[in-house]
């Protein structure tokens, strides 16, 4: 739907500009041709300019609404579920490269990479390689 | 909502700001356009403001239909319930009206002056 | 009863080209300029002394514990509280523990405090200088012209404001002079800035003033005795009645999944 936004707004702006020009010409004509330009009947616009302007306004409004960004849920649990799901989708598409950057903002706290016992991991790795070589 | 309830179901402040900003920007742009069209139509006094209020509510309605409804209906909320994205219903329907009003008056006056007077 | 015919004025279209359009363009450009000036003048935060940072962070730590205690269990909350209160009361986090009782230094002589004031001054200047300049420019060049008619009627009280410099008694107050177009521009140009500069711009004066009013007082307001602030924070922490969000979680969970 988002691709519709720009064309709709553009078409609406063109129609609005045309309506503006028509209205201007109409009032100019009315004020020069009639002797008493103050009379209210001469100042009334023809119906098609009304319709044109209102349709144009509606089109631009629709285009602008379609072009705005999507809102975010404000409840924490819906929001967190949404970003986790998006992160899953994206990481399954594009490998595991930037999984930390997306998803749960507290991933760093969940993983606690500062608390990893490197020596123990190294010992495990040595045992593993010894098992393999057997 | 009591304080304790708010602590049990916390609210994402960033999302609130993001949503409000999205709505405000949309309305300040559309309000100026409504001013242009009100000026072209040559509306005066009450009719101009009524036109603005009606169109502004229409914009909010369109925003609800295209942007809010898919998410909030999928969540099982009833129609026109905006609780998923806004704290109160007034935030969507009325507060943008006052936001866009200065821009509306500016363009209304300008185009009224250009086309009519 | 005969209706009073609306007043009509024949105005030279040149008024539009030489008054309305210049004022509008100048107003838009001022807003854009103000935005970029505020971007350029934003000062990078200065490197602070490690002791000063520790003092600020300890206070922020206390405030964070005070506002978020409900996510901690009772035991861990009490451990944290006791630790912080002890530190606060003994003055372990003070920048200069030996000048505890002395009155705070004059903010005018303290270079750090001066820095903050300069920032505020700059902000105010960015608002005041263009305003006075443009006001006097409009008054000097464009006063005395009637350029527009408002599309809605207003009371006679506005006449002196909208028709400044036009001394015509019987004219409808809806007719407005160039200075009132300037006021309309001040209030109504927000949408142009949204369109040109994106949503979080610094161009609009109205938005900036609202921001300045809502600005919270920083944790270290200049001219306050930090040891007293620590004492107050310790007291605040001591009176908290702890509860956890997990209290009664079982009932709530069962409530939610009940068929």
Automatic annotation (TrEMBL), chain A:
Keywords: Membrane, Signal, Transmembrane, Transmembrane helix. The chain crosses the membrane at residues 49-67. It is a multi-pass membrane protein. GO terms for cellular component: EMC complex. Residues 1-22 form the signal peptide. Its main location: membrane. The keyword Phosphoprotein does not apply. It is found in: Endomembrane system. GO terms for biological process: protein folding in endoplasmic reticulum. Belongs to the membrane magnesium transporter (TC 1.A.67) family. This is Magnesium transporter. It comes from Trichoderma parareesei (Filamentous fungus).
Automatic annotation (TrEMBL), chain B:
Its main location: endoplasmic reticulum. It is found in: Endoplasmic reticulum membrane. Keywords: Endoplasmic reticulum, Membrane, Transmembrane, Transmembrane helix. It is a multi-pass membrane protein. GO terms for cellular component: EMC complex. The keyword Acetylation does not apply. The lineage of its organism: Eukaryota, Fungi, Dikarya, Ascomycota, Pezizomycotina. Belongs to the EMC6 family. The chain crosses the membrane at residues 49-69, 90-115. InterPro entries: Emc6, EMC6-like. GO terms for biological process: autophagosome assembly; protein folding in endoplasmic reticulum. This is ER membrane protein complex subunit 6. It comes from Trichoderma parareesei.
UniProtKB/TrEMBL annotation, chain C:
It comes from Hypocrea jecorina (strain QM6a). Keywords: Membrane, Transmembrane, Transmembrane helix. Belongs to the EMC3 family. One of its GO terms (cellular component) is EMC complex. It is a multi-pass membrane protein. GO terms for molecular function: membrane insertase activity; protein-folding chaperone binding. It comes from the Eukaryota. The chain crosses the membrane at residues 15-37, 127-148, 179-198. Pfam families: EMC3_TMCO1 (PF01956). InterPro entries: EMC3, EMC3/TMCO1. The EMC seems to be required for efficient folding of proteins in the endoplasmic reticulum (ER). It is found in: Membrane. GO terms for biological process: phospholipid metabolic process; phospholipid transport; protein folding in endoplasmic reticulum; protein insertion into ER membrane by stop-transfer membrane-anchor sequence. This is ER membrane protein complex subunit 3.
